[in-house]
Design brief:
Layout: E1 5-16, E2 19-30, E3 34-38, H1 45-52, E4 62-70, E5 73-74, H2 81-87, E6 88-91, H3 102-112, H4 118-131, H5 135-138, H6 151-163, E7 169-173, H7 181-194, E8 199-203, H8 207-213, E9 216-221, E10 224-230, H9 231-234, H10 242-248
């Protein structure tokens, strides 16, 4: 573990009722890196993300042991869980727009946090939409319903909404699952810029996406870490584990 670690996970285990889905995983994530997580379906990738910001708490039969620390603070000991979830933003696989205007989709969380001045909200909405590469497309129709946008635009609106919390960590769970390749590349360009401001955790089934974006990549399989290394090693002809090579080259998975 490095002094630059933003997140440290140690011996994390997660069980749903009597079925354990994460088997004592340990790793760290550096500040302002893009950290990729790959692996087949049912490997525990989404469950792992939910442990980071404690949205796993919404699942009654989930049992978590081990520690997750963010900036040295154990998330299980955090009393203000809402503040934790603002700090660790989450973007779901399918965009879920609030039935509000584009403007209000982004301004909703800041208003809940107590920001009332219109000039301050205007500046924040423009900033978040610009960071999500959406401002130029919607600046003349901010009063339109966010749910009327195209799928790719709604996904970027979801990112803008997550950024409105001013998170330190942004978790993206299969963000490109329902959007076209051109929009996917646009969002990838957005992420490369955002990394200067936030730490990004990218869960993806697209191994080439992790290869393009991630500084380091972790291969998770059946709830255990097979390999974690720099992406150029993971996606090389000679990763540390033969199973990694077979997965990223489509031999299994």
């Amino acid at each position: 573990m490095s002094a630059e670690s933003h997140i440290i996970v140690q011996d994390l285990r997660l069980a749903y009722a009597h079925k354990e889905v994460l088997h004592g995983v340990s790793f760290d994530i550096q500040r302002n890196e893009i950290f990729g997580i790959i692996g087949p379906a049912q490997s525990g990738k989404t469950s792992l993300l939910r442990c980071l910001n404690r949205t796993i708490d919404f699942t009654p039969d989930a049992h978590v042991t081990g520690t997750v620390t963010v900036d040295g603070q154990d998330v299980r000991r955090v009393k203000d869980v809402f503040a934790l979830r603002r700090k660790i933003g989450m973007v779901a696989p399918l965009p879920v727009g609030l039935p509000l205007s584009i403007y209000d989709n982004v301004a909703f969380a800041p208003r809940c946090a107590g920001i009332r001045r219109k000039s301050e909200l205007d500046a924040l909405v423009e900033q978040c939409l610009s960071q999500a590469a959406l401002w130029d497309e919607v600046k003349d129709r901010l009063d339109s319903l966010g749910t009327k946008l195209s799928g790719g635009q709604q996904q970027r609106l979801t990112i803008a909404r997550a950024l409105s919390h001013q998170p330190e960590v942004l978790c993206l769970d299969e963000f490109s699952i329902a959007i076209d390749p051109v929009t996917t590349m646009r969002i990838e360009d957005v992420l490369k810029e955002l990394r200067h401001h936030v730490t990004i955790i990218l869960v993806t089934n697209l191994t080439q996406q992790a290869r393009r974006l991630a500084d380091r990549t972790m291969f998770l399989w059946q709830g255990s870490i097979v390999e974690l290394d720099r992406s150029e090693v993971i996606f090389s002809e000679h990763p540390g584990n033969r199973q990694t090579y077979e997965y990223v080259n489509g031999i299994f998975g």
